Amino acid sequence: MSPGEIAAEAPERTDQGRKAPVRLRDTALEAAANAIVIIDREGRIEWANPAFESLTGYALAESVGRRPGELLHSGAHPPQFYQSLWRTILSGRIWRGEMVNRRKDGSIYHEEQTITPVRDAAGVITHFISVRQDASERKAVQAALDAERRRYRELVSRIPVGVFRFRIPADGRRRHFDYVSPRLCELLALDPETVESDARVVYDAVHPEDLPELESLVDRASVAGTAFDWEGRFVVDGQVRWYRVETRGGVWAGGDLAWDGVLSDVTERHEAEARLRLDAAIIASTRDSVMVTDLTGHIVLVNRAFVEVTGYTQRDAIGKTPRILASGRHDAAFYADLWDTLRRQGYWQGQVWNRRKNGDIFPEWLSISTVRDAAGRPQHYVAVATDISRLKASEARLEHLAHHDPLTDLPNRLLLKLRLEHAIERARRNRRRVAVLFVDLDDFKTVNDGLGHPAGDGLLVGVARRLEARMRSTDTLGRLGGDEFLLVLEEIDEREEAAVVARDVLHAFDAPFELPHAHAIHVQASIGISVYPDDTDVASELVRNADAAMYQAKQRGRNRYHFYTSELTRAATARLALEGRLREALEAGEFLLHYQPMLTLDNTRLLGAEALVRWQPPGEALVPPDAFIPVAEETGLIVPLGLWVLRTACRRARAWLDSGFPLRLVAVNVSVRQLLHGDMVESVRATLAETGLPASHLELEVTESGLMEQGSRAIEVLDRLKALGVRIAIDDFGTGYSSLAYLKRLPADKVKIDRSFVRNLPDDNDDAVIVATIVAMAQALRLEVLAEGVETGGQLEFLRAKGCDACQGYLFGPPVPEEAFELLFKRARWLERADADGD
After folding, report:
1. I need a labelling partner for 226 at 20 to 30 A (CA). Which of 88, 191, 695, 738 fits?
2. Nearest to 411 by CA among 478, 495, 328, 335
3. What is the pLDDT of residue 833?
4. Buried b vs exposed e over 661-677: b needs ≥16 C-beta within 10 Å?
């Protein structure tokens, strides 16, 4: 049935006058380019135009009466698709969509279809008109476009830079991005939708310091739509990164300005450039010499330090080889080993001697490294060198100082030991002798304290130079320390040869020493001699034996030499044993005090008592002070021993006072070593406070010779003790050769005449004159005078006649323990009463 016949069925179309328009409509439908199909309510084809036959391959005769699905079903759509379609058109609505069908020849094609329901006069749907258009070509084009778009997006997403299109509309609308690639959003840590909806988020990510520059650049490019490039900083996830923006711009239809561009991360390049600038600054400013060569060894770069160290300018060095620095001190094998190590390990380090441009040869610590490219291939060699001239000089100086005395520049104890050991080895091989001379200056301490340490140092230097002038080339002269010198004499056969040298050394002191800012000084020396192999074959023992012999020389009058003997060893061994016993005795409390009375000479009344220490080993005889006091002095034990004597004597004196004994004072001997070691003043103050003894009842006795040795240092301590209120007595007066001027400086209350001047009174005229002079001098200085060692009535009467104030000695009683001394108290009081009764 034709469309006209379908229409003729309607009563309204029976009018013959209307048949002409129907034929025209049929002709139009026949000639339409789109396929048109009329389908009844059952879904069967009633009519189709020629375009349908061209589209599907089915002729009209083949199609009429059949459902389209029977002819064209491709299987591409599920049943639900068709169910939805029929629900739509049966409801009277038009369906539009795309469908995949199959032609008669089996080929698949796409079509766009519109199905429109047709109603009769009563409004009942009677037919459906389907208009179909082949969409295969459009689909193919669209698929190609989609594929191209996918390939483009995939390409854009894979490249390491971000891609964008930025637009400024001509109508004044807000600037925006037409497109941003995922990589761009990834680089800026932004969401793509946010970026495309609000371009400001990109501006907000720019570093605040760089944003004004970018905005100004965009504004200038907006005037004419020109391209622009820019590098700047962005803040991404809290970190600052560098990005480069490159664009190409233009004016689009409608007047819009648009820029297509890329954004790339150049942070690593900026950091590398910064490192390069830093490295360049470091190389330029470092004090180490830097030289870069190519693989052929030609210099391509040197820094400023290289120029300063070598004297070669950059123009002198570049293009040359490092051979311009060769000193000639290294042979070919040295350089061959250097290059072999460098090629194998890529690194070499060591000390080299090079030559400056002016010809000076100097040492350097050189490090050479191979510089490789990213593939690991060698590109250059970099040599960094440190001029170690000063270090070498310092090392030599330190080496010298380690083995030489800094004051005299003579070998020190360490070097002397080494040379003595070598001398003994040579003498053992050659069957000869080695002599060691231990030289110690006499009374050097008096010079050092009296004139000051600079004068003392000057004297030591003068002695060193004078002794050096008398040494043979085979001999060694060194300083052990203080005023002690050591001579090592080699190539001697007889002991007497050492004596000849010793006498020559003593003659070296005949002439005075002229010191700056001081008078000429006369000084003498004592020498001890030990000989290998006669005395020992050990170096340290040779020195020790010579030291012991030197002490013997001093004890025999000084200004002489003395050979070591085996007796000295025995004496030294005994002394060491005594020192050990003394320490044990001090810890065990084996010491006790004896007291000797001191009396006035005018009426022989008791004045006080001198406390004298004694040593009582358990089960042995009492040890006199002369046997252990010198050892205590030398070892320093005199300090704790002296403090024990002080406390014990003050405690006993306080007890006697509390018992009613008329004791005016207790005298305690004080070593000069006590004065100068520890805080003697504080010890006395604490002892007086602890015992409760008034300071005026304590008299401290210091020997004249000890004060002469220590000089002003001891006087300063005595002044501080005197300020406590205690009395000061000068013991053994007359033996120290002090002058009247020196005596005036002492804060003394009393002088005690040494027993050696009292022993032969009144018969010895010389002693009588000395004693009379001491008394007169003391009286002139308003000092009390006490004579020690009074044993006869004649001595007593002589001293009384000369005006001596007090005395002590065996005439009145020996030193006795405290219990016995209390009896002397009572006898003294009885004598006092007897004298009073006689009056």
Report:
1. 191
2. 478
3. 37
4. bebbbbbbbbbbbbbee
Q: Are 811 and 800 in contact (CB under 8 A)?
A: no
Burial class (CB in 10 A: 0-12, 13-18, 19+), 791: middle
CB atoms within 10 A of CB 335: 14
Residue 694 preceded by cis peptide, ω within 30: no
Mean pLDDT (whole number) for 650-657: 92
589, with CB counted inside 10 A (0-12, 13-18, 19+), is exposed
- Render 80-139 in DSSP notation, one character per residue: HHHHHHHHHHHTT--EEEEEEEE-TTS-EEEEEEEEEEEE-TTS-EEEEEEEEEE-HHHH
> Which long-range contacts link 317-324 to residues 24+ away (Cβ below 8 Å)?
317/291, 321/293, 321/297, 322/291, 322/293, 322/297, 322/383
CB contact set of 597 (below 8 Å; sequence gap of 6+)? 606, 607, 608, 609, 808, 812, 813, 821, 824, 828
Q: SS3 sequence, 328-373?
A: CCCCHHHHHHHHHHHHHHCEEEEEEEEECCCCCEEEEEEEEEEEEC
Q: What is the mean pLDDT of residues 431-448?
A: 88
Using CA of residue 336, residue 340, residue 346, residue 347, what is the dihedral sign?
negative
Q: Which of 55, 64, 3, 1 is nearest to 28 (CA)?
A: 3
Q: Cα–Cα distance between 332 and 338 in angstroms, integer? A: 10
pLDDT digits (tens, 9 = 90+) for 724-763: 999 999 887 766 555 565 667 788 898 888 888 999 888 8
Residues 6+ away with beta carbon under 8 Å from 474: 490, 491
Q: What is the amino acid identity at position 226?
A: T
Residue type at 510 in one-letter notation:
D
Residue 673 · residue 636 · CB < 8 Å: yes
Kindly tell me if the per-residue pLDDT of 115 is higher than 80: yes
| Dist CA 631 CA 774 (whole Å) | 31
Q: Is 380 exposed, middle or buried (0-12, 13-18, 19+ CB in 10 A)?
A: middle
pLDDT digits (tens, 9 = 90+) for 761-791: 888 888 898 889 889 888 888 889 999 999 9
Question: Is 298 within 8 Å of 321 (Cβ atoms)?
Answer: yes
Phi, psi of 565 (to 5 degrees): -130, 165
CB 68 within 8 A of CB 48: no
Cβ neighbour number for residue 601 with a 10 Å cutoff: 22
* Exposure of 28 in the CB half-sphere (CA atoms within 13 A): 7
Over range 456-478, report the average pLDDT. Answer: 89
CA distance 234 to 162: 14
Segment 27-45 mean pLDDT: 86
* Residue type present at position 480: L
The tens digit of pLDDT for each residue in 278-322 reads: 767 767 667 788 999 998 889 998 988 899 899 999 899 999 999
- Region 601-613: what's the mean pLDDT? 85
Tell me the C-alpha distance between 471 and 21, whole Å: 155
Question: Among residues 456, 826, 522, 450, which one has the least CA distance to residue 662?
Answer: 826
pLDDT band at 835 (very low <50, low <70, confident <90, very high): very low
Could you tell me the CA-to-CA distances from 577 to 431, 550, 573, 574, 639 in Å, in that order? Answer: 36, 21, 6, 5, 19
Structure tokens belonging to residue 174: 């807000």
Contacts of 405 (CB under 8 A, 6+ apart): 411, 412, 478, 479
Share of the chain above pLDDT 70, in %: 89
Are the beta carbons of 668 and 649 closer than 8 angstroms? yes
**Per-residue pLDDT at 155:** 65
pLDDT (tens digit per residue) in 340-374: 998 889 889 989 999 999 999 989 899 999 988 87
- Given this model, what pLDDT does residue 834 score? 34
The pLDDT value recorded for residue 243 is: 92
With H, G, I as helix, E, B as strand and everything else as coil, classify residue 662: coil
